Amino acid sequence: MKKITIIIALIMLSVKVTYAQDTERYTIKNLEVNDEFSNFGATYYGENQIIYASPRAKSRIIKNLWIPNEQPYLDLYLGTVTEEGEIIDSQKINRAVNTRYHESSVVYTSDMQTVYFTRDNYYEKDLNKDEEGMTHLAIYKATVSSPSEWTNIVPMPFNNKDYSVGHPTLSADGKTLYFVSDIPGSYGQTDIFKVAINEDGTYGDPVNLGAQVNTSDREMFPFMSDDGFLYFSSDRAGGMGDLDIYAVRLDATTSEVQNLGMPINSINDDFAFLKKKGADYGYFSSNRSEGHGDDDIYYFKELEPLQIPCDQVAEGIVTNKETGEKISGALVILFDEKGKEMGSQIVKEDAKFSFAVDCNSNYKVVGSKETYTIDSKTFTSNTNVALGLNLDLSLAVEPVVTTTPSGLSKDEFDQCQGALDLVKNIYFDLDKSFIRPDAALELSKVVKIMQRCPNIKVEASSHTDSRSTHAYNEALSQRRAQATVDFITETGGILRTRINAVGYGETRIQNRCVDGVKCSEIEHQINRRTQFDVSNY
Hints:
Layout: H1 3-10, E1 17-19, E2 26-30, E3 40-45, E4 49-54, E5 65-66, E6 71-72, E7 75-81, E8 87-92, E9 103-108, E10 114-120, E11 122-123, E12 126-127, E13 137-146, E14 149-155, E15 165-170, E16 176-181, E17 191-196, E18 207-208, E19 219-224, E20 229-234, E21 244-249, E22 257-259, E23 270-275, E24 281-286, E25 296-302, E26 311-320, E27 331-336, E28 341-346, E29 352-358, E30 362-368, E31 375-380, E32 389-390, E33 393-395, H2 410-421, E34 426-427, H3 437-452, E35 458-462, H4 470-492, E36 499-503, H5 521-525, E37 529-534
Parallel strand pairs: 1-22, 26-32, 26-33, 35-36
Antiparallel strand pairs: 2-25, 3-4, 4-7, 5-6, 7-8, 9-10, 10-13, 11-12, 13-14, 15-16, 16-17, 17-18, 19-20, 20-21, 21-22, 23-24, 24-25, 26-29, 27-28, 27-30, 30-31, 34-37, 35-37
C-alpha cells in the first residue's frame, strides 16, 4: 500500500455490507493531470474548476521533502475542467494557504464564500506536536476572496494537538460539517464524525456517526452528496482490496452500507469520491497499478443511479374512539398507493401493529373489526427513521341492530342493499381470477358495509365473458367468486357464513357480446365481473 494515502489521511497511522456488482454502472478514465507523484482529493469550485492536492516539487533551491515517501509536502492546486473531465491549467492556491507542510481535502460552502480544508496542525508559524513529537492534522476555515486567494484562515475549535481531524465535507443544507478523526474512544483506527454549524457561527461538539458507518478499521474521506448519500472509504472486512469506496444513507438507520464495486473499487486503495451536484459524473482517487504514478485522480460517469435499500417502520395502536381503550383482535391492512395489499395483521392484546415500508412511498392503513366502524390513514414514508411514523387508528362502536329470528326487516334490507348498490362491480383480467388492486378498494367497501350491517348475508356473484366453453366459464366464474369471498373474509375479518360465492359463467352477459359476436376488449371486460347483493330477505 502506498504510504501517502494512509499517512496523509490522518498522519498516524459489524456493519452489513452489500455490493454494487454491476461493473457497467460506471465508466472511468485516468486523467492526464496525473504524474509520478500523489494527486488526489478533487473538489469542485463553481461549475468548471477543480481544486485538488498534489506534492509537486517546490520552486526552492533546497527541496522540502516528506521523509515517509520522499515526495514534497502536499499543496492545493486549482485547475479548469474540460468537457471530457480533464483538469488543465493548474495553478497553486496562494502561499497563505500552501505552507511548507501538508494541505489537502477541501470543501466549499454553497455560496462559495467560505472554505474548509485540511492542514498539518500548523498555525501562525507554530507547528503543534503531541508529547511524542508527532504533528497531527487539523481543519481550518478561510474566506474565499477569489478562486486562488483565501484569507482570514482560522483553526476549528475542535482541533487538538493530541489527535487528528481532517477531510471535511458539508451536508447539502450547510448546517453540518463531517470529518475524520482518531479521537480517543473511537470505534476504530479512524472514524467519521459530525459537528453542527450553528446560526451564530459557532460549532457543536463532535458526534461519532456510530456503528451504522464506523467499524474497528479505518473510515476516511467522507463526501456528502446532494441526494442524501454519504460516500466514504474504508478498509473494513469484506472489501475488494485495501481502501474501498462505500455509500450509505445517513437519514435512514436501516439503510445498508453498500460497496460501489468495480470499476470504482479495485484491489488497491480507492478513496476521495466526489460527485458533482445535480450531475451523474465526478472524480475519485486510486493508487491502482495501471495508473500514471502514485495516487491518481480518475474521472467517472454514472450510467445507472445508485440505489440503496431503505426501509422505514410504520406502526400504531388500535383503540376505541369513545373510551380510548385498546382493541385486540382488530384487523389492520396496509395498501400501497395503487391499492395493492402489502400486508395485514390481527393485533394482539397490546393492540399494536407494525409494517416495514419502503422509504419515500405512499401508503394507506385500514383498521377494522366487526361491530366497529372502519378507520384509515394515508401517509407518505420518508428516510428519517428517527422521527417514526405514528399511525394510531380509532374505531367507533357501531350500534347493534336487533332483528327477528326470521331475518332482516324490509327497512334493514333496503338500507344495506342500498349501500351495496353504491359499491362498484369488481373486474378481472381475461382468463384470470386474482383480485386486482382496483378491485381491492371496492372490496374494502363491502367489508365496511358488512360490519355496519352485522346481520346481513351477502351473495358474491361472479361472471365471465362469452369466450371459451360454457363449462370452462362456469368453473372460471366460480373461482372468481371464491377469490372474492376469500379476500373479504381473510382481509376483512368477516365470517365465511355471512358471504356466499356463486359463479354464473356466461349466462348473464350485460351487453351484445354473446357467443359469435365480435367485440372489443373493453366490451368483453364489462362481463368479467363480480357484483354483490343482500341474500337473506
